[in-house]
Amino acid sequence: MSQTQAAPSARLSIDPLSIGVLLMMVLGLIVPTTPAVRAFLNEAQDYAIMLLFLLYGARLPTNEVIDGLKNWKLQGSIFLTTFAIFPLISLVLAPLLQPILTPLLVAGVVYICVLPSTIQSSVALTGAARGNVAGAICAATVSNVGGMFITPFLATILIGGDGTGVGAGVTVDGFINIFKILLAPFIVGQLARPWVGAYVQSKANITKQVDRSVIWLNVFAAVAMATADGVWHDVDASQLIIMGVVCVGLLATVLTITWTGGKLIGMNYGDRVALLMCGSKKSLSSGLPIAAAIFPASILGLMSVPLIVYHQIQLVVCALIAGKLAQAHPDGV
Known about the structure:
The chain is an all-alpha fold. 80% of the residues lie in helices and 0% in strands. It contains 14 helices and no strands. It has helices at 3-6, 16-30, 35-59, 62-69, 72-97, 103-113, 120-128, 133-161, 172-202, 204-229, 237-264, 269-280, 284-294, 297-328. Helix 3 packs across helix 9 (172-202), helix 6 packs across helix 14 and helix 9 packs antiparallel against helix 13 (284-294). The two termini are 18 Å apart.
């Protein structure tokens, strides 16, 4: 992927992914969900997620991972931001939010903070801002693979014991689900790369549509099941507004930390951009499947609201930032 090829993705503020997510949210609110429909959605989610992670494994160039891993300063900074700084912020946020948000919404905010970074938008926005694309590919991928193990572990510690009242943790069945639905397909995809890797990479549009479709399916299922369970009765307009403000503040805090921190530790412009974009993102495509694997279905819908809100905000804000950075640094320096 060249920087020039990635540049058009700066128009992520009107990306079909975001429009589709909003549409699925609306449909989830108004489409009746019978027990038969719920059972179908559960099965469809599992198979769709397995296909998604199979494609992730098949299309990931192993040599790019090896090259990207050599940049220890960049990789370490993104990893620490994702799995250390974000969780530490959640420890401050949770007690402040408990008096004004429902326990499940607070848990949802904490869950945002333990998720891996995105792959598609992190890489696209890094390229759009003329940053280190190879480093971003490696960091986002390592973040997602690591998130299969680290996210459930952190969720158990922070959500199960931070006073939110959710009482949800990772059980043996949860880890089995993670391996069966996420990790095993990814491993199979990696093993099959010598035979199918070139073909999968040549069908970039198809894999992108699968990526989007899985997100849309997960959003619809989460919202529809939440609607059927009546969980929206616990959320009023004021709490949704508060959620938006919280997500903007969380994103702004991490953007400031990553951009300033990159300069303080002597990163060049390209690496600072990769740190900014990868370090601030949280993956909806990984986050919803992992949540479905480790949390009870009865709380999944409401807990997903903060992540859905954060996802929309990060796309719009970071697309605007990428455009400004590209104008200020057209040569990537």
